[in-house]
Amino acid sequence: xxxxxxxxxxxxxxxxxxxxxxxxxxxxxxxxxxxxxxxxxxxxxxxxxxxxxxxxxxxxxxxxxxxxxxxxxxxxxxxxxxxxxxxxxxxxxxxxxxxxxxxxxxxxxxxxxxxxxxxxxxxxxxxxxxxxxxxxxxxxxxxxxxxxxxxxxxxxxxxxxxxxxxxxx
Length: 169
Known about the structure:
The protein is α+β, with helices and mostly antiparallel strands. The protein has six helices and eleven strands. Strands 4-10-11-7-6-8 form a six-stranded antiparallel sheet. A three-stranded antiparallel sheet has the order 1-2-3, with no helix packed on it. A two-stranded antiparallel sheet has the order 5-9. Helix 3 crosses helix 6.
């Protein structure tokens, strides 16, 4: 991976740390400038396996899901993963004046009310309900372990299919 001014490959050094903020009446949050610099003028919002809203740049999102094209479209893994990703993601969400509008469906599933923590994760940012973030920090490996294991199994199938294609040339 090539080192460049904003990071290494798809990792942006500005996607670290955490920031507390509020969500307004029309579901807008302000993304800290250093975190939004790598996003551009729009982003992808995705409710991940922890029921946390991930904010991806379009480029990083496409990298994240590119392995899906190598799955057998008739497989259970393909159906489960594409259904989950499509239902829980919103692409081309505008970043206007440093703010992004969180869709009601994602806000509700993430348990967000008025306060949020925006946490950097190197290739993305995450929007957490403060109580969930504190619970996660108390028990990182046990937090939603069963759901995480299911999603990991599905992503492992994607990775295995990608590896097979690479080996086949």
